[in-house]
Amino acid sequence: MDLPHHGYRATKQRARAAPAGDSVLFEDTSSAAPAMNNQVYYTPGYNMGPPSNEMQGGAGMDNLFTDPMANAAMMYGSSLANQGKDMVNKEISRFMAVNKLKYFFAVDTRYVMKKLMILMFPYTHQDWEVRYHRDTPLTPRQDVNAPDLYIPTMAFITYILLAGMALGIQKRFSPEVLGLCASTALVWMIIEVLVMLLSLYLLTVHSDLSTFDLIAYSGYKYVGMIFTVMSGLLFGSDGYYVALAWSSCALMFFIVRSLKMKILTSLSSDSMGTGSSAKPQFRLYITVATAVFQPIIIYWLTAHLVR
I want to staple 148 with a disulfide (CB 3.0 to 4.6 A). Which of 38, 45, 140, 273 is the partner? Predict the structure, then answer.
């Protein structure tokens, strides 16, 4: 109902309505309730979230080192690990003496050159005695008469490579043939060493020859085999047989003079014993048989490479 204009005065001013078409530039939030902040505040006494990584790691390590049971378990585990390591080293040393093996590879360039000259020209060498220092033989770099495994190993590898080259020149190369050549050479050396050890055992020959010594003396033949194959490739069959004769005689002379210092030197000491050791002629037979066997193996392993 409309009120009359006279006698009435409004106590409130009517608010002006915003035009419908205009957009509101600023929103009036003075009378509105304060908005809640999205950030969550945690009180120190009631931390419900998961602990940080640093707190977890620090607390875990502190608990580990302060727990007596954990310390005891760690000490027990360490003792078991040390015992296992000692057992492994002991088992390895039963089958292969690492220190002895290092002795046979203690060489230098001067020793290698002088040893190769002795192997090819042993007739000019005068002193064949192995030198000792406090009952321990000197290393090969200190004594040229000491056996080594460096020259036999390198000579064996060189022989295999030379055999592959010879087979390739003759158009007969194949991986199977080269593998058969390498395995045959290795098997013959193993058989030779086993026969030597068995002979020394059955004839009760007491000497300071070790298995590594026998492998070294047996492996020196590969030097003569390389010389023989090279001569056959360069000069034909005539050069092959001349080189075979030279290397065989040189190797036999070298083996006899070297094993003489190892096997035949203990004759006087054994003659003063109970007589249970081998007779002197048996020792001589072993030395000569080992020397005579070398040319046969050289010919067997090199004849098929030269045609």
Answer: 140
